Amino acid sequence: MNYRFSSRVAQLKSSAVRDILKLTQGKDMISFAGGLPAEELFPVQAVREAADRVFAAGPSALQYGLTEGYLPLREQLCERMAAKQMIVNPEQMILTTGSQQAIDLLIGVLTEPGDTILVERPTYLASLQVFALHGLKVIAAESDEHGIIPEDAERLIREHRPKLLYAVPTFGNPTGRVWSVERRQKLLSLCKQNQMPIIEDDPYGDIKFDEKDQFPTLFSLDGQVEKGAVFYTSTFSKTVAPALRTGWAMGDSGVIRMVAKAKQAADLHSSTMDQQILSQLLSGFKLDDHIRLISKSYGERMLEMHNLLKQQALKDVTWVKPKGGMFLWLELPDGLDAEALLRCAVQKGVAFVPGSSFYAENPQRNTARLNYTYNTGARTEQGVARFVEALGEFTARS
Amino acid sequence: MNYRFSSRVAQLKSSAVRDILKLTQGKDMISFAGGLPAEELFPVQAVREAADRVFAAGPSALQYGLTEGYLPLREQLCERMAAKQMIVNPEQMILTTGSQQAIDLLIGVLTEPGDTILVERPTYLASLQVFALHGLKVIAAESDEHGIIPEDAERLIREHRPKLLYAVPTFGNPTGRVWSVERRQKLLSLCKQNQMPIIEDDPYGDIKFDEKDQFPTLFSLDGQVEKGAVFYTSTFSKTVAPALRTGWAMGDSGVIRMVAKAKQAADLHSSTMDQQILSQLLSGFKLDDHIRLISKSYGERMLEMHNLLKQQALKDVTWVKPKGGMFLWLELPDGLDAEALLRCAVQKGVAFVPGSSFYAENPQRNTARLNYTYNTGARTEQGVARFVEALGEFTARS
């Protein structure tokens, strides 16, 4: 039989990161590609004890759960959110399979195929995939080290009347940028004036290298949940462990109810095993101490990579030292195509993500995203050496 | 801010079953509504030991996984499928968040909004939700106790040129019907002649009350995986436990790759914690013995409910005694609206699903789906008594 595929799926590019992840499985490949947390820092023992408590609670732990997610975990999350000046109740929150699903469901609820949406340039590649699958037109506003540039966003809004704004204002993926408070305020009022909801994607906000840094979320700045402008998404993947695949979305309860309807069709509900484990974990384990510990370690790993690259005094290679998150965003010499560089680098045993994956259109090809959280020490050293070798060879060639 | 919702989501009815499940949580409500397995039969100890082995394997168990799912579990599943004459390799299989997600993703890959699809009348309500969300037009062929009626399917195919067939040929939801082998063969060749792929949804096939019964799947009858006509979906929710939310889809490897691309956008991957637990479970625990045990118990529970209803000699209430699965499908007196009956029944402390939920259009309102696997003994007795009381009162009123 010959199949006729959905045109949207057929035209979808597979995620470069995940394809590279697949290629590199089991080989002597040092990967700076995936956004992988450090395995040796996973709180395995605490998760194990939490799982034990779930099983001890008896067989009902293994039953079907609510589409909205395990209520005790939502209640605990509401407390955690309140500590960040985000005051929500469990009806304003839904648990999802990672924040990726939260984004997919919100987009499904808040847009129609053919709608236009506004993003920062560059932006998270797996969100770009969501937008493509939903048949959206993506327009991207320029950004600098203070975040999205309000004047450019304003111009695009005037010209294209986008339906909503998707943004990662704190430790953006791929750039690691943090929006200034002034920019946050400006974008928030711009979106409100134009009746544009905002999806604020915040998987990395907790991973900050200076504890004293405070970056108020757009959600907290808006301060209004019902009929509010901002829908906030986040995840336990970076702070506890990705395998537990638990993220969440929060905002206006009417929209969250719509998201739940869409989720019923998508998968009924996410793993309640994982949600119960996380709930048990939160009641015993000091998650904030753990987040401090991993943030400290990730800060050191970032410095390791930063220093190794700096020592090389690479010509026309620049980056901004990130204050948090998981990525170093390199601008490479003009005219260099990072996709070609990747093919060369992979042969030398190091992987990264070419920056072009993070652009909806007109990619800036001389860019690369390097993850610094997964490797450390000799691995990072060797990986950077291989990367620099590829870069040298490649620039010599091109 | 006022939101403009996606028209498809806005028009979507919430699942009656899940809404009832929500209503009934924590109340003295005997629920025959959800398709819930019996909690006391969950293999809690075996799952717990399996989880222990996952944690003992070290921190990498908590890392991100492949979109296609944990490879060892796919390999084990391929062996299990081979024992049912379904010969597939891991590239022809993807693990999903329950079989619900498998259906959603396959529909996303194999249809365009506006396409028509063919189903059996009545059919699984959560699949109808998927079709609505994907903007599909649904046409339903009549069925009897031997399954979908080929002549009616043929007529509809000729008139509407549907893109594919969705079916639950073994222990259908809601009817519990089993398609005869002859009907299976006829539908299969009909679909092949018309270049229509089939999604064969088989969550209940293992739950059969007579071990000797053999119902060959459409997938095995087709016998062809690459370029094959059939995509098969199933789940561990009924045979192990729903909280582990692990289902799968299998078929042509090119289509499975497309499904993986769509899944990358939808949620990157499902819980690898759950997938690893299941993999460990399958290597130690005798799952087939467990399936025999629950099937035996469910057969007894079905008989309990069947006999209780039979004793009442209810006027103009008929049903076919199921050979497996989880549901009793009642036809109630002509003119009785089971949705109104439900409101009355819930006040008496018993819930079920009105049959109208299972029709894409022109619902047969005098039908009801009763689950018999969740309750037993005095609970079933009391629930049936309440149901009969509501029915009596209601028919007296109407």
TrEMBL record, chains A, B:
InterPro entries: Aminotransferase_I/II_large (IPR004839), Class-I_PLP-dep_aminotransf (IPR050859), PyrdxlP-dep_Trfase (IPR015424), PyrdxlP-dep_Trfase_major (IPR015421), PyrdxlP-dep_Trfase_small (IPR015422). Gene3D superfamilies: Aspartate Aminotransferase, domain 1, Type I PLP-dependent aspartate aminotransferase-like (Major domain). Its cofactor is pyridoxal 5'-phosphate. Residues 30-372 form the Aminotransferase class I/classII large domain. GO terms for molecular function: pyridoxal phosphate binding; transaminase activity. Belongs to the class-I pyridoxal-phosphate-dependent aminotransferase family. PANTHER family: AMINOTRANSFERASE, KYNURENINE_ALPHA-AMINOADIPATE AMINOTRANSFERASE, MITOCHONDRIAL. Homodimer. This is 2-aminoadipate transaminase. It comes from Paenibacillus prosopidis. The lineage of its organism: Bacteria, Bacillati, Bacillota, Bacilli, Bacillales.
